[in-house]
Write a structure and sequence with these properties.
- The chain is α+β, with helices and mostly antiparallel strands and 363 residues long.
- The protein has a 9-stranded antiparallel sheet with strand order 1-2-3-11-8-13-6-5-4, with helices on one face.
- The chain has one domain: Jelly Rolls.
- The longest helix has 13 residues.
- The chain is globular, with a radius of gyration of 20 Å.
- The two termini are 19 Å apart.
- 22% of the residues lie in helices and 18% in strands.
- The structure holds 2-oxoglutaric acid and manganese (II) ion.
- Manganese (II) ion binds next to loops.
- Pfam families: 2OG-FeII_Oxy_2.
- One of its GO terms (biological process) is positive regulation of gene expression, epigenetic.
- This is Nucleic acid dioxygenase ALKBH1.
- Its EC number is 1.14.11.33, 1.14.11.51, 4.2.99.18.
């Protein structure tokens, strides 16, 4: 059976999610759209970019190819959805991978480990993982490094997984490099003036998935949501405004960028499966060739650790504008004093997994 045989009807999205999540026997992937292969499908249309919005030298500063070289597509039936097939300069992805693994998890940013560890224990996740990740496997089961236990990091306006809100009270500066990258992508896609205010980084192991959801916590839905993928490939499902709408499945490979804007901004989506790069002919990890000097040349140690990590993992960065121009957060009464985990909405630390498991647990 192919996924396309799932017809519109009661929670068609969940049926397709289960189809692609199945381990044994592995699903039929013949319906999965692969934008890296160009335009063979009648569902894929070229996306129109604003070639004058970003100069070639500005693009290079963010590790991007000149906009005229980007391969950008739309998908019939998904207004506002833009897929840019790896617009990064050869060799610039290692910079972004290192930022996601070494820089962005640092304080004052927030990560899942902070939910049950003290700030002093999580302040140098990279440093504490170097030894464990760089030593060769001894055969016996080693405890997981902090880096291997990292599941999410929030940036800018920090997302509260319990209340599903952002607030004015919990904000730290969004990294300037990620802001620059996001502004360039959005400008080329026809959204001048995008202000990157929040980021959510997801760290996927080979058996991770992300449940069916809509990103609606941002207060201004007229601004696009950006998504960057690095490392192992994945299957992304994009549905509609209702769970009865059967989703379209597509591959996301390392370097791919998605822009969800217009109607697609509020469409259901999910990641049911990570696909090891070895299974993706043509997407083996030729990532660490160094023709781009973005951020300087990686040290041997950084290169080794990033390569080790990415051989079995996928990184996803979403960048969001939370508030429209001049918009403010609604006044909220001060939160009640937290005395124990039940008042915090659950056991601390489990919030990290909740989003990934909430759909699966009800499947
Ligand atoms: O990992 C992905 O590609 C999707 C991430 C996502 O949808 C989210 O963080 O809201
Ligand atoms: Mn999402």
């Amino acid at each position: 059976m192919a996924a396309s045989s799932v017809v519109r009807g009661e929670d068609a999205f969940k049926k397709v999610f289960k189809f692609y999540k199945r381990k044994s026997p592995p699903p039929d992937f013949s319906d999965v759209t692969d934008f890296s292969k160009g335009l063979p499908s009648d569902k894929i249309v070229p996306a129109v970019l604003d070639l004058s919005a970003v100069s070639d030298s500005e693009a290079a500063r963010a590790g991007l190819q000149p906009v005229k070289s980007w391969r950008a597509f739309g998908l019939q039936g998904y207004p506002g959805f833009i897929f840019i097939s790896n617009p990064f300069l050869r060799g610039s992805q290692p910079f972004w991978i290192r930022q996601c693994l070494k820089t962005y998890p640092q304080k004052p940013n927030v990560c899942n480990l902070d939910m049950h560890m003290s700030p002093s224990d999580t302040q140098d996740i990279w440093g504490q993982s170097v030894h464990g990740l760089s030593s060769s496997p001894s055969g016996k089961r080693e405890p997981k490094t902090l880096l291997e236990r990292l599941r999410w990091v929030t940036l800018g306006y920090h997302y509260n997984w319990d209340t599903k809100t952002y607030s004015a009270n919990h904000h730290t500066p969004l990294p300037a490099d990620l802001h620059l990258l996001s502004v360039q992508i959005t400008a080329a896609c026809g959204f001048p003036g995008f202000s990157a205010q929040a980021g959510i980084l997801n760290y996927y192991r080979h058996d991770s998935s992300l449940g069916i959801h809509v990103d609606e916590s941002e207060l201004d839905h007229s601004r696009p949501l950006l998504s960057f993928s690095f490392g192992q490939s994945a299957i992304f499902l994009l549905g509609g405004v209702r769970r009865e709408d059967p989703p379209t499945a597509m591959y996301m490979h390392s370097g791919d960028v998605m822009v969800m804007s217009g109607q697609s901004r509020l469409f259901y989506h999910a990641v049911p499966r990570i696909i090891p790069a070895l299974e993706m002919e043509g997407h083996r990890m030729a990532l660490f060739s160094q023709d781009s000097t973005l951020g300087g040349v990686l040290s041997e140690e950084d290169r080794l650790l990033c390569t080790r990590y990415i051989q079995s993992s996928r990184l996803n960065v979403t960048v969001r504008q939370v508030l429209g121009p001049g918009q403010r957060f609604p006044e909220t009464p001060s939160p009640p004093q937290k005395t124990d985990a039940s008042q915090a909405g659950g056991v601390p630390g489990q919030t990290s997994q909740r989003r990934k498991e909430e759909e699966e647990s009800s499947l």
